[in-house]
Design brief:
Blueprint: H1 7-20, E1 24-26, E2 36-42, E3 45-53, E4 65-72, E5 82-87, E6 98-103, E7 108-110, E8 113-122, E9 125-128, H2 137-143
Parallel strand pairs: 3-5
Antiparallel strand pairs: 1-2, 2-3, 4-8, 5-6, 7-8, 8-9
């Protein structure tokens, strides 16, 4: 399976994790901005998080890197958005090893667009870099409920 054909898989994995954690997920009629909008009811308020998903699928022979993640263009930016980065490995099958939940204030400008490189790549797998574990998996997902 080629990486291009897995884009929708990454989106569905992210949507499934959000739904399993009490979020409602809405998909746009056309993909011209965010991949989905997630809402969460909290104390009588509704939190709204626009979500862009950028899956990482390392190919055979990928070298170890101390900094790994997404670098490139984003179709839309919003202060309340989250960039969800599912990290797949050749052994992860159809579910990622980790998901980074990167809030907008952690998305940095880059010469090729934007950068969110909070993982490292070693031994054919991605893992959170020290100091950024709070952006990954359940802690990162839980933080979406409190971020401004």
């Amino acid at each position: 399976m080629q990486a291009q054909s897995r884009d929708y898989l990454a989106e569905m994995c992210v949507a499934g994790v959000l739904a399993d954690n009490g979020w409602n997920v809405y998909f746009p009629h056309r993909d011209v901005g965010f991949d989905m909008i997630a809402t969460f009811s909290k104390g009588g308020e509704i939190l709204i998080r626009p979500v862009q998903v950028k899956g990482k699928y390392p190919n055979e022979g990928k070298l170890n890197k101390p900094v790994y993640g997404y670098v490139g263009k984003l179709t839309s930016i919003h202060a309340a958005m989250v960039l969800a980065i599912p990290y797949f490995s050749k052994d992860s099958g159809n579910f990622p090893d980790h998901i980074a939940w990167v809030p907008s204030h952690h998305i940095k400008p880059h010469s090729r667009g934007f950068s969110a490189q909070y993982a490292k790549f070693s031994d054919e797998k991605a893992s959170p870099r020290p100091g950024f574990v709070h952006l990954f998996d359940q802690p990162g997902l839980d933080a979406l409920r409190i971020m401004q």
